[in-house]
């Protein structure tokens, strides 16, 4: 409380570093000294403590079985205890809460952390969202997660990326060697052809003069 403020009739109580333990009732009682400390004001105030939850993090879906998809939603450091909803973002309808398993607990700071696990039937395309609601702050934090037809294919592709890279490298190496062999073969063919033509041409000139000289004699 501020002594200077009280002289002006301001009896405000200011709390610093508020924690959930400060959530209680406070009683303000004002007495008048000039009236023999008679009570002139009595007010009871209830303090409600609230803290924003972090933006939810929705993990990529995984398939514990061929017929099921599992999503996990996590949010931390909020107060009071939240409500958790899973939403079908295609039509903004709420999913059955029987499909989700929520774990809400107090952390070392006295704030709430929440982990929600959703299990649904596997479909070709899923577009859902996780909503964390703080009723006291009228706060709704929603994050979506979308899957497509490539879930199974993506798992197969990333299952052994090293082997795939090695296979691609080997394939390109073989193609490069084959191309080089073709180039060398073509070059050798042209060289041999030129040499053969040169030898035939030189022989004809060597024989022709001798024949002419013999004819003149």
From TrEMBL:
The chain crosses the membrane at residues 169-192. One of its GO terms (biological process) is B cell activation. GO terms for cellular component: plasma membrane. It is found in: Cell membrane. This is ICOS ligand. PROSITE patterns: IG_LIKE. Its main location: membrane. InterPro entries: BTN3A2-like_Ig-C, Ig-like_dom, Ig-like_dom_sf, Ig-like_fold, IgSF_BTN/MOG. Belongs to the immunoglobulin superfamily. BTN/MOG family. One of its GO terms (molecular function) is signaling receptor binding. Keywords: Adaptive immunity, B-cell activation, Cell membrane, Disulfide bond, Glycoprotein, Immunity, Immunoglobulin domain, Membrane, Signal, Transmembrane, Transmembrane helix. It comes from Homo sapiens. It is a single-pass type I membrane protein. Residues 56-142 form the Ig-like domain.
């Amino acid at each position: 409380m501020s002594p200077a403020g009280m002289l002006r009739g301001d009896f405000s109580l200011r709390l610093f570093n508020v924690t959930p333990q400060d959530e209680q009732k406070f009683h303000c009682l004002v007495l008048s000294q000039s009236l023999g400390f008679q009570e002139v004001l009595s007010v009871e105030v209830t303090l409600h403590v609230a803290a924003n939850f972090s933006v939810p993090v929705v993990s990529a879906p995984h398939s514990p079985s061929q017929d099921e998809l599992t999503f996990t939603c996590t949010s931390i450091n909020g107060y009071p205890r939240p409500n958790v909803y899973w939403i079908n973002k295609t039509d903004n309808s709420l999913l059955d809460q029987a499909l989700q398993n929520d774990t809400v607990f107090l952390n070392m700071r006295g704030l709430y952390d929440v982990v929600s696990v959703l299990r649904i039937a596997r479909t070709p395309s899923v577009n859902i969202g996780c909503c964390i609601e703080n009723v006291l702050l009228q706060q709704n934090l929603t994050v979506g997660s979308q899957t497509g037809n490539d879930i199974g294919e993506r798992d197969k592709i990333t299952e052994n990326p090293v082997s795939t890279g090695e296979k691609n490298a080997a394939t390109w190496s073989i193609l490069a060697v084959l191309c080089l062999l073709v180039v060398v073969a073509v070059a050798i063919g042209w060289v041999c052809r030129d040499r053969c033509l040169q030898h035939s041409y030189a022989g004809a000139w060597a024989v022709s003069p001798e024949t002419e000289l013999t004819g003149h004699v």
